[in-house]
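User: These chains co-purify. Model them together.
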Amino acid sequence: MADQTGTAGHALMQQMGITTENIERRKRVVGLCPDDLARIAAIRDAVAGNCEQLTSQFFDFLASLEEARPLFGNREMVDRARRLKSEHVVAMVQGDYGTRYVEQRIELGLIYSKAALDPRVFLGAFHHLVKAMGGSVMKRFHDAPHDAFESFMALEKVAFFDVGIIVDVLIFERERVIGRQQEAIRELSTPVLQVRDRLLILPIIGVIDTHRARLLTDNLLQAIRAKRARVVVVDVTGVAAVDSKVANHLLQAVTASRLMGATVIVTGLSSEVAQTLVTLGVDLSRLNTIGDLQGGIEEAERLLGYTVASTPSPNGHSPSVHPQSVQPESA
Amino acid sequence: MLVPVLKQGDVLIASIQAALSDADLLQLRDELAEKVGRLRARGVIVDVTALDVMDSFATRTLRGIVQMTKLRGAETVIVGIQPDVASAMVQLGLTLNDISTALDLEDGFALLASSLAGRHRGG
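Assistant: Joint model of the two components:
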């Protein structure tokens, strides 16, 4: 288990681009220098000896916060976090802040991220911990406040080094979630559906921007090739607002489809959209438009030579359209 | 690079196999204009499936082919424009507005057949 998560921390470290040079850079950013290591060595026992108590302070403070409830709802997670934190408190004063140290910080950051711990909540608790560490240091050096202060400041550099990593992990994980959601939306947003042989439907719902319009056009063209479509019905019932830019994107998709030998029928232009387009003076003369999706499909079937015949249902109720009754006319 | 021009019934098929230089394109245009008359073709299909770039010169030459063969009494269909090519052409404003296009050779034949049949009916 520990090994497994160890590799998770290591993998994330690589994804985040944290290399040895990056770690050195981070140390320089917080001003951690060799002198500090000597000062930290002086307070090693004062802090490490107190590590259980310090860890408890960190978690007791977190437990008192409403925002950290998800973390404490999961027994296993909180135990792991506690163990890692206790190791962290000891490691903070060991003077070795290399790859292994960063990896452990990232693992802890991952737990916070899983518990949906906000950076500000973490920062509050972490500040509490550092303050408690300061208390331990002061107690040890009660007769030399200057040394105590120097040592504590060195320790604080390490603390900020840690904070930098943890916050980066939280942001990175959050961005990863956003990226995944964007990907999902992108995939959902451009379905190209086949209704009959050589007839595709492209329902567009929501807002069209340049990026999406491009994606839409690409998907449509690929689908025309893959499904050998001759007619495409683009339904824009779900598009609330259209401006000249969107109209142009639509026109481009239509023109590109035509280049591939497919006819495009646009359906579902609402009265508001129609008014906007006319007011804007967009030239849509090359656009083949039909009122609603049903009409569009009927027109497409006509173009493809399909006829729909209704046959009375066996029990004499209203006529229904059977799949077999949709047949291409023999040319 | 020579483009083979095949005769199938009263339709000529020019199947472009690789990227063409401007000179090759002009040669294809001249050859088609000449063969349409000599072989008494009623239709021409130019297959551009193999092309992954279509610049303004190629577009203009294709337009030239369509217009010349039309004057010589044949209809031309461009077939096999790839999705990426179509997309790029539209971005560049090369829209081949008044030219017939079809998905592939098969569709090109069907399109020619129906439009030639219409012409017969129309007189």
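Residues 105-122 of chain B form the longest helix (18 residues).
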